[in-house]
Amino acid sequence: MSRPPRPAADVRLFCFPYAGGGSSIFRSWAGHLDESVEVCPVLLPGREERFSEPPHTRVTDLVPLLADRLAGWFDKPFAFFGHSMGGEIAFALAEYLCARGPVRPGHVFVSGCVPVPGPVQRHTLADPELLSEIREMNGAPAEFLNNPELIELMLPTLRADFTLAETALPDPTAVLPVPLTALAGTDDPEAGPRQAKAWSRHAGGTFELYELAGDHFFLHDAGPVLDIVGRVLSSGSGRQGPDSGRQGPGPGPQDPGSGPHEHGRSAPDSH
């Protein structure tokens, strides 16, 4: 949903949302990045146009489907960006692709997340406690938190997303053989810069950590985030990664059910 396609772009940036988020999070991103980057938000089940589909609760189930459905869009260099739950998905998908080859991302951005268990397992909480945690995180607008009907509608997806995020942590010995960049909010109590340093032990390529002003949802001020992403990608990282952009098996871009929608650039997984 960010903008029309950029067929002449040098690199595709696949973007994965936080818990409860959809492709609309990344709607404005193309306007902040130059024409060499094509922004491809990934639309997961259980939200927006895929609201009727049950959301996934295990990254081990989701990742093979993503790899299959996005394969036709890996025909040029690409990178992954994920925030919170999306960061866990981005890392897991990159690890899956690197283990199988020959296609792999040239760069992975993990934002607002850490590779270790958090102090609270939110997916195990009763509904009132889960809503309290969401409110404490500044994780939902007032129109949601004050609307019982909307809460009833959306809470199953939120719970499923928290389940996926909190069970998707990488193996402590996992090392990703591509450049890894972590972004963290200075006021994020659980995934701040100090905690985000833990990603360095999973970096087999170069590792960088950036601190940005804000809480867990510093992503909503997209400008500083995209300044970093654009600078990293323009340096060649994401374009020149090992085997990056080599065509892999799977449906090609001409299949409207296999990748980013023609106008919205929302790339579904598979269900």
Report strand %: 5-15%
| Distance between the ends | 20 Å
| Largest sheet, strands/sense/barrel | 7 strands, parallel
* Rg on CA atoms, Å: 17 Å
Please give the count of helices. 8
Average pLDDT metric: 83
The ordered string of helix (H) and strand (E) elements is EHEHEHEHHHEHEHE
Uncertain parts: 240-271
Q: Reading side by side through the largest sheet, how are the strands ordered?
A: 6-5-4-3-1-2-7
By secondary-structure content and strand pairing, the structural class works out as alpha/beta
Shape: globular
Question: How would you briefly describe this protein structure?
Answer:
The chain is an alpha/beta fold. It has eight helices and seven strands, in the order βαβαβαβαααβαβαβ. A seven-stranded parallel sheet has the order 6-5-4-3-1-2-7, sandwiched between helices.
Provide a descriptive summary of the structure in words.
- This protein is α/β, with parallel strands linked by helices and 271 residues long.
- Helices cover 30% and strands 14% of the residues.
- It contains 8 helices and 7 strands, in the order βαβαβαβαααβαβαβ.
- A 7-stranded parallel beta sheet has the order 6-5-4-3-1-2-7, with helices on both faces.
- Helix 3 (85-100) runs parallel beside helix 6.
- It is globular, with a radius of gyration of 17 Å.
- The relative contact order is 0.22.
- Residues 240-271 have low confidence and may be disordered.
